[in-house]
Amino acid sequence: xxxxxxxxxxxxxxxxxxxxxxxxxxxxxxxxxxxxxxxxxxxxxxxxxxxxxxxxxxxxxxxxxxxxxxxxxxxxxxxxxxxxxxxxxxxxxxxxxxxxxxxxxxxxxxxxxxxxxxxxxxxxxxxxxxxxxxxxxxxxxxxxxxxxxxxxxxxxxxxxxxxxxxxxxxxxxxxxxxxxxxxxxxxxxxxxxxxxxxxxxxxxxxxxxxxxxxxxxxxxxxxxxxxxxxxxxxxxxxxxxxxxxxxxxxxxx
Length: 253
Known about the structure:
Pfam families: adh_short (PF00106). This is SDR family NAD(P)-dependent oxidoreductase. The structure is a single chain. By secondary structure, this protein is α/β, with parallel strands linked by helices. The protein has a single domain (3-247), classed as NAD(P)-binding Rossmann-like Domain (Rossmann fold, 3-Layer(aba) Sandwich), CATH 3.40.50. 47% of the residues lie in helices and 13% in strands. It is built from nine helices and seven strands. The chain has helices at 12-23, 35-45, 60-72, 95-117, 142-163, 181-184, 200-213, 223-232, 237-247; strands at residues 3-7, 27-32, 51-54, 77-80, 125-129, 168-173, 218-220. It has a seven-stranded parallel beta sheet with strand order 3-2-1-4-5-6-7, sandwiched between helices. It is globular, with a radius of gyration of 17 Å.
């Protein structure tokens, strides 16, 4: 039985991916800061097979706890899914909140990737969940977009470093999804135009397909998102940023 560790597993994309991997006979370790939600998911999937690890990955001591766990357990798959962001104008969001999101979205991803890859074997895989915003800035979400650009470029570099070792690394970049991420960030999914929103089931299915295919270092989820980025190629950077500013749920229009 293969083993996988998933961060941010208590809801949204992580929850859906966990269900799909369990159906493929993976033994899962589910990581999140909400113990009750983790226990509910564990009971749903099977307490005899799957385990939970409570950790708040905005805290350096908890990043170290999960890193130590990865270093002492041989996992076949790591999915760095946990992430956070806050919508709003840069100077109107507390600095502490934005720095915490940088720790979770970047420091935790780097630390857990390091612990996993130091013990990785041929056939193992690492998926770092980023965002469509890895390809674009977002006025009204400046720090979040910047962290996801980091994740995408970091993952591509690791893909190259490990591809000849038979270890697959990819950055998976979903667009807006109907998960609780947006309400946690201070806006509802309804703040986005409907044409850019995917269901979390669609996102999870595409992540699993990417994991099964193992052929790209950077994956943009959703045909409509790929088409939007293709269209941006014909615009100046200034025009593209202006469009993102007009679409942004973090700015009042």
